[in-house]
Amino acid sequence: MSSKKDKNKAPMPASSAGLLRFFEDETQGIKIRPEIVVGLAAALVVVTILLRFVIAVSTGAG
Questions:
Q1: CA–CA separation, 5 vs 40, rounded Å?
Q2: Distance separating alpha carbons of residues 38 and 28, to the nearest angstrom
Q3: What's the CA gap between 15 and 22, in Å, rounded?
Q4: 53-59-62 Cα angle (round to 5)
Q5: Contacts of 62 (CB under 8 A, 6+ apart)
Q6: pTM higher than 0.85, yes or no?
Q7: pLDDT tens digits for range 8-55
Q8: Counting CB atoms within 10 angstroms of each CB, which of 1, 14, 43, 46 has the fewest?
Q9: Rounded CA separation 47/54 (Å)
């Protein structure tokens, strides 16, 4: 017998005939927080823009 709760639940979506797999095992390698990666990327952009500005001013092509 199914209860009222079971009738209100939506069925789980199909996972492409079993092709969808999630790996939860830890892998070897460097582990870096996402915030650090975004910060380093932003810092690289800022340094690149500053270097272009400094080079343009020093060569007079500004």
A1: 49
A2: 22
A3: 11
A4: 50
A5: 53, 56
A6: no
A7: 666 666 655 666 666 666 778 888 999 999 999 999 999 999 999 999
A8: 1
A9: 10
